[in-house]
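Contributing new records

If you add data, match the layout below exactly. Sequence lines come first and carry their own label; structure lines follow with theirs. Keep one chain per record. Anything else will be rejected by the validation script.
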Amino acid sequence: MASPTDLRTLKAFVTVAREGNVTRAAEQLHLTQPAVTLQLKRFAADTGITLFRRTSVGLELTLEGALLAAKAEQVLAALTDFGQTAGHLATRLRGKLRIGTIIDPEFTRLGAFLKALVESGPGIETELRHGMSGDVPEGLRRNELDVGYFLGDIRDFDPVAGVAPDGQENLFHAKELARLTYLVVAPPSLAGVVRGQDWPALAALPWIGTPPASVHNRLLGRVFGDLGVRQNVVASVDQEPSMLAMVRTGLGLSLCRESLALHEHQSNGLVIADRVQIETALSFVCLKARSNDPTIQFAFDAITRIWG
């Protein structure tokens, strides 16, 4: 590089990489669009790297840009970690722990986890932010969350997973809590066309869809994408109870955790597709660069005591 990169330019690059759009990035940074564009041009010139390619919907990172963006994320996360660690050392584990929660609290053992935090670290104030699984890694990257629960493969949200050189540090640190199975449930009226069918046959039936941030969307997207078939989505919802309610009304099929699927089968007569299932994991995650933060270490210790 011809000259050192200042933190403002680095932050502009990371924000555009996350958003894929200069206008939205400028709004987040409280800068003008030309100012952000100029920062990107200077950064590209300084690094000698083509950072982005234009697409029909915005900007997409090149392979080199993705590798550089991952390093930039780590630098910014390390700076955040430095400041927060200094604060924690001064307050002796007194502060706020922002926790991303998903699905129902009984399944994630959220109550037991919070109790362990309160009993062992009374100086820590917890703040819960409930959403979909895919919201958690984004919240961590944006420094809106400190830790969170996650369903699926966290590498789906690492910009260099699978393309980074050996030894490249991962963006996220994850502790697997449990393995779980997802099944396909359908209204009783579709029993005759669901039982005995494989994924390609099921794809053509009507489905209740979910947003990209949901684990259902990611799991089914990978299955159908690998098979080269298109899922026939007739309606979309963002909450698991709403999905099941729409299945009960006869609207279409849905992916569902095994425990819920069996309950719905016994209580409401929903049909379970008997030839397909998807395995995935529930994990507890944070940014790798912040994994040594005392408060975050404390949270991981507490979650380990609860889940073993």
